[in-house]
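pasting input
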Amino acid sequence: MEFQLTEAQRALQEAARKYAREVVRPKAAHYDETATFPRDLLSTAWELGLLNMAIPAEYGGVGLSHLEQVIVAEELSWGCAGVATSIIANDLANLPIILHGTEEQKKRLLGHFSERLKFSSFCLTEPEAGSDVASMQTTAVRDGDHYVLNGAKCFITNGGQAEQYTVFATMDKAKKHKGITCFVVEGRPKGLTASKHENKMGQRASETVSLTFEDVRVPVANRIGEEGQGFAVAMATLDNSRPLTAMFSVGIARAALEYSMEYASQRKTFGKPIIEHQAIQFMIADMAMNTHAARMLTYESAWLLDEGKRNTLQSSYAKCFAADMAMKVATDAVQVYGGYGYIKDYPVEKLMRDAKLIQVYEGTSQVQRLVIARELFK
Amino acid sequence: MKILVTAKRVEDPESKIKVKPDGSGIVQEGLKYKINPFDEIGVEEGLRLVAKHQGEVVVVSIGGKEVQEQLRHALAMGAHRAVWVNHTGPLDQLAIAGLLQKVVEKEKPDLVILGKQSIDDDQNQVGQYLAEFLGWGQATFASKVESLESEQEKNKVPALVVGADGKTVRVIREVDNGLATLECQLPAIVTTDLRLNQPRYASLPGIMKAKSKPIEELTPAKLGVDVTPAIQVLKMSAPPARKAGIKVADVPALVEKLHNEAKVV
Ligand SMILES: Cc1cc2nc3c(=O)[nH]c(=O)nc-3n(C[C@H](O)[C@H](O)[C@H](O)COP(=O)(O)OP(=O)(O)OC[C@H]3O[C@@H](n4cnc5c(N)ncnc54)[C@H](O)[C@@H]3O)c2cc1C
Ligand SMILES: Cc1cc2nc3c(=O)[nH]c(=O)nc-3n(C[C@H](O)[C@H](O)[C@H](O)COP(=O)(O)OP(=O)(O)OC[C@H]3O[C@@H](n4cnc5c(N)ncnc54)[C@H](O)[C@@H]3O)c2cc1C
């Protein structure tokens, strides 16, 4: 067992940290306040290869291992979790192709992402189907060389900016999850419309929209996997992406911890810096301990993927523990700041709002516990 | 053209540096290291010149196995290959310049770029020694206030310009009372000052590519250089802590103190 990053892993970490510190942090409050799309930050991320890190090198990507990806993800989220979500959205959308696409599909559908800045969206959630993916209502009907998609998706990250969409639709509602199929919609075809960007609590730099599909035609060549395999494709994708979202939590928590340590050394009450009050020391000790525990769980869940092993249990451990942990740590950071923590001029209330989302997207904390229990009793 | 650039491993300026209680050195534990910032500027300048004039950037570092990390950083920025002079133990500036002289004689670069100093012990000597050993021209403290406004603006008056015939280099350098321009015949030695350029970020693809770029290993013995230090560090100590300032009641009191105590006015 090696509890040490390699030289190359440290170099990747350093590169991502530099981007987060020098490019993202100075603008994070601005994009949080205005909830506008951080195109300039994403453009720099693209130039540095931070976008599309999961695409294998043979298809033009950086081809990082899962462990390397989560190392980078911690830094991105430390900079701003909303920006990190926008960056990783491309990988999430491309994972079904990376995992289940044919050689021809990988070349054709992944190649562009290294040639220019291009966004892609993962379209699973629907107004009536969030946690319960199998009750999906968006339909796909075969028509010659095409499928015709109809329905609505919601909460789609980067949906208004994307030029490629990985869409899940059912071919037979009665078959529940066995009816679901995965498609890639290229460009912005007729019939595909995006609503306005949702006004969110946190991670406001990431764009979240609803999409409607009205007779959107997709060539058969853009079906990923077989008909009826879509549910398995989606679940495999989430097994791969959960370590990344888990690591977003770690990035937020580390930021909260650092801010708290800094503030607690400066702020004085009752004649001494508050870090000298045991109540504050213990709170900060818990923050540090839990942040590190989540990081270790996440490393393990990513390492399993690199070993080619199934990580469903460990990635749910990591995502659930890390998300709940970050919520607590960010809330405690606000506590350490006292009244100032509640004020937007200070950096910690944003962390609390940003952390909340991780308990919800890519499988809520309740759903993670369902998965864990199911795996344990298997 | 071929450009040789140095890449020294130094303590990260953001680390907390503590002197060992016995004064024998600094506490290494928990320290982070990085490429000397002046060397990073040198790598950037080398890459820009090679982008214009073709050729390659070769980086060189002297030290134990750990200096490979700084070589990889330079390779990730885009340098083509690296030379590692493997040596652990104390080295003084003369020994370093001696080793670099041999590397230069082996590599035969058209230009050698070094940092004007390294931020660990701030000696500001190696570039000058090296020029003397080789009998080459030198232009130290290459500098220019770089405008960040646009690419065009940035490239207006580069501080380092290679002549059209590829035989000379013109260098704008920072001196006490402004800027001086020197012209040197190539091959030459240039040392970088802080404002020469803004080094690029190492990109992820760059880092991945750097893994497979070659690092050639040399040793002082192979190069035939005796590196026994001529200078011995006897003791290190932290500078005395600054005393707290005082507040004066008014301007006349301030002037009185400046005149009678500090004796500056
Ligand atoms: C900002 C943002 C970005 C998003 N980005 C994307 C995206 O890019 N692509 C995409 O497809 N989706 C995206 N989502 C959707 C997200 O994945 C879903 O919101 C999430 O899966 C939860 O679904 P839901 O909102 O329908 O909640 P529901 O499923 O309605 O859940 C409501 C509550 O019930 C609980 N619950 C549900 N079922 C059970 C059960 N069986 N047992 C116990 N508790 C249960 C949940 O834990 C939750 O607390 C995004 C969401 C947000 C907010
Ligand atoms: C929206 C808002 C409205 C408010 N309205 C009013 C108002 O109308 N009138 C008014 O007078 N005030 C008001 N306040 C101020 C509020 O009561 C203070 O913010 C609160 O008392 C905390 O003080 P502080 O912010 O200075 O935090 P600090 O006292 O600096 O505390 C910082 C942290 O240190 C901890 N701490 C401090 N001392 C100790 C100790 N000895 N042992 C252990 N832990 C310690 C605290 O619990 C906290 O976690 C308001 C604040 C806010 C945010």
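fyi Chain A touches chain B at residues 7-8, 10-12, 14-15, 18-19, 47-50, 53, 57, 62-64, 72 (CB under 8 Å).
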